[in-house]
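Re: 26V structure - here you go.
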Amino acid sequence: GVAEDDVRTACEPEALKRAFLDHLLYTQGKTLEIASHNDIYLAVAYTVRDRLLRRWSHTSSRHKRHGTRTVAYLSAEFLIGPSLGNNLLNLDITDALRETLARLGIDLDELVRREVEPGLGNGGLGRLAACFMDSLATGEIPAIGYGIYYEYGIFFQTVVDGWQVENTDKWLRFGNPWAIHHPEWGVEVKLGGYTEHYTDDVGRFRVRWVPEKTVWGTPFDTPVAGYKVSTVNTLRLWRAEATEEFDFSVFNRGDYLGAVNKKVTSENLTKVLYPNDESHQGKELRLEQQYFFVACALRDMLRILEHRGLPVTEFPRAFAVQLNDTHPAIGVAELMRLLIDEYLVPWEQAWEATRATFAYTNHTLLPEALERWPLELFKSVLPRHLEIIYEINRRFLNEARIRFFGDESRVFRLSLIDESGERYVRMAHLACVGSHAINGVAELHSTLIKEQLLPDFYAMWPEKFDSVTNGVTPRRWVVLSNPGLAALATEALGDEHWIRDWPRIAGLEKHADDAAFIERWQRVKHTNKRSLAALIRDETGVVVNPDSLFDVLVKRIHEYKRQHLAVLHIVTRYHRLKTQRATDMVPRTFIFGGKAAPGYVRAKLMIKLITAVADVVNSDPEVRDLLKVVFLPNFSVSKGQCIYPAAELSEQISLAGKEASGTGNMKFAMNGALTIGTMDGANIEICQEVGAENFFAFGMSADEAQRLLRSGYYPRDLYRDDAELRAAIDLIRGGFFSRGDAGLFEPLTNDLLNEDRYMLLADYASYVECQDRVDAAYRDARQWSRMAVLNCARSGRFSSDRSIAEYARRMWHTSALPDTGHG
Ligand code: 26V
């Protein structure tokens, strides 16, 4: 038999079997004979979770004992992806459990494949937060991720008649075995109302916030295990509930339904993730969501501080709070409020503590994404915070006036309040003044922040500005998603150290000219391509040739990301095939994926354009398999895990200066895809690392693009002068891909001819010419694979382990707290 305790912790096959069957019976109430797929999945998940819990409690008590600084990563989004495979990997029990379950007739890999993923993020920013949580745990840095437990994640995308249709993502329908609800750590959060200024009984000036309503926040804790270490950190996501079952004042007046309704409104707070990235709308509920989770997080940190027996003045020594974009920037004002109003800390001291606590990461330069809240809206939700922001601003602008003597226009630009028209609170400015460090997410991006986004802040505090290039976790993006490559790497490198020390992947470089290695590399890629081909067939019905070049563009759909530039190239190829019988063309499969914000009409039309071109091209017998185009619906973390390993060409074609970093670009490179890309974001650094001879660079630099725009950009002249470009645009606007409906794509084509903000036409010729060079390179399969190996081998910088090490040293002043032995 298996000892009592071993049922929860032991990892031998016998103990795992007993644990699984126990959970099946005592948690799910089923025997194997009548268990559903979901029962089995949950019982397996609980078995795995048990094995995390011992380490989890050891980690928290170790952190408490040592009192080291804990990173609090505040993010409105955590796009963690499926957990089962990742936890098995990090606990190192995949093989034992697979074997155990196989003996019971259960296929572990199928459970892993079919797991529902929580879509609690939009894209890059949310996924970065998840990679960072993995690297923090693996690096054994004490950390808590704070965010929102949305009931509905990012919508589920289907494509109907070529158009995106949004469906709700009820991800909790079958239960979430990974999170533990802790109502006992609930927090009350105030909203709305007004403030009262008064003198208390010992003569101190005080402020009382009289809220219009209060909501109750309770945390759902998900353990985050590091890779083969005993550290298990916490992802703590908050759900809003009604404070009381009924509002009795309303109830007593006999308005039962009104009272229940009020409860429903409170619960609406964390109901749904806003699905528009990069486009800010001043929605009250969104502001409430942001304040809600930040207020819960800071209260929670104060509770922990108290639990550790430390005074509130120790806050900055106990916590380093990282603001993932401005969504949690209200935390600056909230911490000030807590310290001043509730703990009666003097302003100067509170301000010093606040600045020592916060650091701010910017993730976008697009003006429409910068958060600014209409003053009246802000005041109605957070009246006390507005007063505090006014006071922060008053002191800050006084300092600025002295620093920039006589330069009132600069003071005006620096203000936390935008007063150029309707008045707004500028969240990026609040984040800047309230933080000791500000960083961009790639070198170019950080430079542009200093020179263009926040030049006045840079002039004032140059020492605050830093740059940390993004990274992604090789555990999920190589080991889990590309087991073939992982096995090959381990064999070639002689051990598995590369999994926790990704720069060691450089050791593959010496095999780049080894024919036997290259052959195995190609077999791995081909296997991955066949799996993706099967997925494409299942999801779209399109049959693609796994011997064709897999050319992939997956990311959110956006004009600045220029998916329609890829379409112009495809249409150009199609036109060549129809007019020139260009039979020496390399067979290609163009694979697209990504979601458009539901209200972003142009982006939805871009999806329709992709699918419309796909329909025509795929059914044209003359094209055969020289050209296939697929739009794979509902791009997600799980889909990414199938796509990146199968890709051969990674499309990173944003207008230079617009993509802050990109992280998909890194996932592709690690999996041995070559990049065709602009000199934008982290593409620049990838090109630097892998060598220009192993990278297909095209297009204008950020500088060139800006200069052209300023000197007068006339896209119609480019259209007039380039016959291939003209042919491509004319096919689209003539209705060739829309059954003669010439009007359908006009919003896109007219824009390209008249404004073309993202300068597709300026980069078109360079892009198409570069794609011809891709063809030439792909014809030499051996040479192509050599370049692919070098891309992977030289991607050492792009692990999020490196990013986290930089944040820890330069902004958080934290270090690892490794587990030495037990107890
Ligand atoms: C902005 C907004 C605006 C208000 C409505 C909801 C919402 C949700 C998310 C965002 C943030 C978008 C910013 C973002 O995701 N940026 C991406 O961050 C990646 C990680 O740093 C980076 O690689 C991408 O280049 C950048 O676009």
